[in-house]
């Protein structure tokens, strides 16, 4: 029996993760022992310190490329770039969670999620000014899981990170203060389908382990390079991809997306749409590039097919929606398809990270900021029953609040991919990478899908500017400081990344390195 | 006795679980089917650990058990909260969100 050697552990490289998970643990302690009166500001401060501290420590690590924790984590350019994106978007989402000025009940979250809907206690708590603060540590845990997901160099760590990010999300999507039945239903659907998908991921893990005798991505790569067509390995890869595509809400694994995006509290929807998408694609990129980069023929046809399905489903079903949250959910499915166009181009630049990787990373940053901003605008437009998300209620919004309509207009144009917004830069970069890789039929479908999708974004703009406002229309709330900051950051980023994307594109180009 | 039979058994269990998730109506039963899928994965992992002569697979099975336990906590909490409201755990009754 040999001696047990301790795995190498570079604490510096783990600092971002330690920061975020540490803040989440402190948040749990505050929840248990802190006085109820000032929990909200304390929890907000802890969560922001954690995520922003994570962001700063990622930036300090820039340029590093190492494998640590006994080979389980890869801290490389791509991981650090995407971790920074997740931490930044996470901090912005936490600001949205903390908004107290918009809802008369001072929070988007129910005081006690365990109280049955419609009971006398529920009516009592609906009007009570107490705010619930459990969402902050839960969201911080989810952010930590997403950052771990982006850096995992080992299928088991990937699975654990997947669950660490998913379990808090299941809970917080069921915690809306208003329309609680919808929110609970969203949580049940998300949970059951999410657990189903992680079962597939896990079975894929087991098959890859059986085929290669290892779950380290680099070992899988080495095996795949010489092993050739191994049924177990290819089957395992397919199951892993199914599990990840579910999280990334790619059609045909998207069925949960519209329901959950609609039912969850809007700040949580913003969080899921932005951060979960980035984390899921971070894992997809790492799995396909590091583990299966040498056996591209196994996954290219699969990804090619689901990219097309996702773009078409997102664009076409988005046309038929009458609820803005659902419409943005289908938009998120279409964007997942566009991101897969970049994933297809992964192999374009042979070694050293093709332009597919860097353009996908840029697209994730641009899309995350824009979609977060768009959902933040949705929290502003309200009627007596909470947020007014039906399309007809947005008629003539520009006359009620020109500023809100203008901001929403910018986000919608960016989602449609109109020049001078970040959406255009991202789409252009991704499509160019795919054409360089010879995938022009896919780009053709993507451009057509963009054109179809542009119709439903522009329809909202036309409705806001050129329709008469309804008599009993919604009011536009005046946001407090947190939402104002989040909106200012996202609008600025959407415009800056559209007008002068050069520095960030360069940064993504330089960061597009995988070790492992 | 070859190890193949264990793998076949695990695959059958996984298929039963996956089919159960798709056809059963009660949220608790659906959830039990998910657990069946996870446990069939455990069987696969342990079998492969034996086949490859490494301990990794057995350790992974422990990870899966821990994660499954965490999932039970969260899942049952969510299912309980919706049951207390609707007096039903049927996934067909949860039909407010559509189209």
Verbal overview:
The complex is a heterodimer of chains A (516) and B (99). Chain A is 70% helix and 3% strand. Chain A is mainly alpha-helical and 516 residues long. In chain A, the strands form 2 sheets. Chain A has a 3-stranded antiparallel beta sheet with strand order 4-3-5, with no helix packed on it. Chain A has a two-stranded antiparallel ribbon with strand order 1-2. With 99 residues, chain B is an all-alpha fold. Helices cover 78% and strands 0% of the residues of chain B. Chain B contains 3 helices and no strands. Chain B has helices spanning 4-23, 27-52, 56-86. The longest helix of chain B is centred in the C-terminal third of the chain and has 31 residues, at 56-86. The termini of chain B are far apart. In chain B, 32% of the residues are buried. The A-B interface holds A 113-114, 116-118, 156, 159-160, 163, 167, 170-171, 174, 180-182, 184-189, 191-192, 195-196, 199, 202-203, 205-207, 209-210, 213-215, 258-259, 262-263, 320-321, 326 and B 7, 14, 17-18, 21, 27, 30-31, 34, 37-38, 40-41, 44-45, 47-48, 51-52, 54, 56-57, 60, 63-64, 67, 70-71, 74-75, 77-79, 81-82, 84-86, 91, 94, 96-99.
Summary of the model, kept short:
By secondary structure, chain A is an all-alpha fold. Helix content of chain A is 70%, strand content 3%.
Query: What integer value in Å does the Rg of chain B equal?
Result: 17 Å
Number of strands of chain A: 5
Task: Describe the global form of chain A.
Answer: globular
Number of helices of chain A: 20
Q: For the report, how would you describe the main beta sheet of chain A?
A: 3 strands, antiparallel
Proportion of helical residues of chain B: over 70%
Quickly give the structural class of chain B.
Answer: mainly alpha
Largest sheet of chain B: none
> From N to C, what is the helix and strand string of chain A?
HHEEHHHHHHHHHHHHEEHHHHEHH
Low-confidence stretches of chain A: 349-353
What share of the residues of chain A does DSSP label as strand, in percent? under 5%
N to C succession of SSEs of chain B: HHH
Note the overall shape of chain B. Answer: elongated
Low-confidence stretches of chain B: none
Classify the beta-strand content of chain B into a percent band: under 5%
Oligomer: heterodimer
Mean pLDDT of chain A: 89
